[in-house]
Amino acid sequence: MKTLKTEYLIIGNSTTGVACIEGIRKIDKTGSITVISDENIFNYSRPLISYFLAGKVKKGEMSFRDRNFYNKNKVSLIPGSKAEKIDVGKKIIYLSGKKQIVFNKLLIATGGSPIMPEIKGSRLDGVFAFTTFSDAVAIKDYIKKHTVKHAVVIGGGLIGLKAVEALVELCISVSIVELADRILSATFDTKASEIIQNALKKTGCSIFTKNTVVEILSKGKNKKVKSVTLKNRKQVAADLVITAIGIRPNIQLVNNTSIITNRGILVDETMQTNVKDIYAAGDVCESDALLDECKKNIPIWPNAFKQGRVAGENMAGGNAAYPGSIAMNSVELCGIPTISIGKTSSEENNYRILRIYKKEESIYKKVVLKNNHIVGCIFVGNIERAGIDTGLIINRVDISNVKDKLLEEDFGVLALPEKYRKHLVGDVGLEV
Asked: How far apart are alpha carbons 190 and 393 in whole angstroms?
């Protein structure tokens, strides 16, 4: 068995792994870094896979770091290789292909895998997930080779709707099937969901809420998907099915080890696990939550990048602390820009809700307050001042003197407390 040795080993080459490299090199300019990736592709921006499927972005435009990144940072990249087993005590990772790597510091950034529902017929040709570039390539190739006029997307969350947007761009008729009472139920309230739902219907989409797919059917002996059966027994035409009901952390590598897991791998504020020198970050981990006194798995790009950077600095001997994860999504759907952050559906007695709704303009703004702090907000149609509210949430700013002005048209930086305005000028606020 071939054995390699490295000071820093990173399993995963998405945003978390890249951020970890940058965190390490911020402190340690020379220590050996090895990155393992189970995909045969240079780093790429996962939010762009819907644009790739729609034909708006080419493969060469998917990367978020240039091709010299690894050479410049003296990184050994091993693509197309899977980490299959870890020996925590001996600090060894066993790879596919009878290779093993001995490490000093390890980051587990194995991400998450799509949850594939147990549906009869889910193994038919034409059924796909939609979380990786490989998924997008497979869907694109299938559409080229077969006549695809109708598609069903199972799941009305952000991943599902980005797939919908790409399919609509390709002039494919789409039906969305969502178990909840509305689309985007995890990030939007009823009104915000209604705006996007109405916009989707105008593009020709059919939406089935409070429903699910119970069977995927083929035509005769042909193994290609042709329709689906819903829970309410309705038959829906489908030449293509995409499942997008969520992801689960890829924690299989640490199963049967001393590394503690819940839904994901548990980490402290340094992103270290309960085992010294072994860190976890990104979609695979559960870290401190910014607005809750608990650990949560919140699998979004900004959290993953910040976690990777913190892990890298600490692996190299730094003293960085992760401030906590927060649910945050910024996406344009049907030409409507949207942002949601924090606790967006809180309706309890100890929350105060501020709202503005302009039906004709499809503009909706909502701010959720608790104890003179903003804990959540939704902006649909007009997101110009969303960055200000996002900063107020993340930095836990007392807004008692301006809370009645938050949704006014002229509300801006000058209305904020003087101390916080100085904080923004000092460049800390550039992240918001």
From this structure: 22
Contacts of 273 (CB under 8 A, 6+ apart): 108, 259, 260, 265, 266, 267, 279, 280
Query: pLDDT tens digit string along 66-109?
Result: 889 999 999 999 998 999 999 999 999 999 878 899 999 999 99
Which positions ≥6 away from 211 have C-beta within 8 Å?
177, 178, 179, 230, 231, 232
Measured between alpha carbons, how far is 399 from 416 in angstroms, rounded to an integer? 8
Are the C-beta atoms of 363 and 345 separated by less than 8 Å? no
| Residue 339 to residue 56: CA distance in whole angstroms | 22
Yes or no: say if 185 and 71 are a contact pair by the CB < 8 Å rule: no
pLDDT digits (tens, 9 = 90+) for 404-432: 778 777 666 656 666 665 555 444 443 33
| pLDDT(210) > 90 | yes
Determine phi and psi for 351, rounding to 5 degrees: -110, 145
Question: Helix, strand, coil shares of the chain as percentages rounded to 5?
Answer: 25, 30, 40
At residue 21, the 3 state secondary structure works out as helix
**What is the rounded distance in angstroms from the CA atom of residue 339 to the CA atom of residue 377?**
8
Task: Give CA–CA dist 52/62, Å, rounded.
Answer: 8
Q: How many CA atoms lie within 13 A of 368 on its CB side?
A: 21
| Nearest alpha-carbon partner for 321 in 265, 272, 249, 264 | 272
Amino acid (1-letter code) at residue 240: L
Quick one: average pLDDT of 121-130?
95
Give the model confidence (pLDDT) of 339-358 as tens digits.
Answer: 999 998 766 567 889 999 99
Query: What six digits make up the tokens of 211?
Result: 């429903």
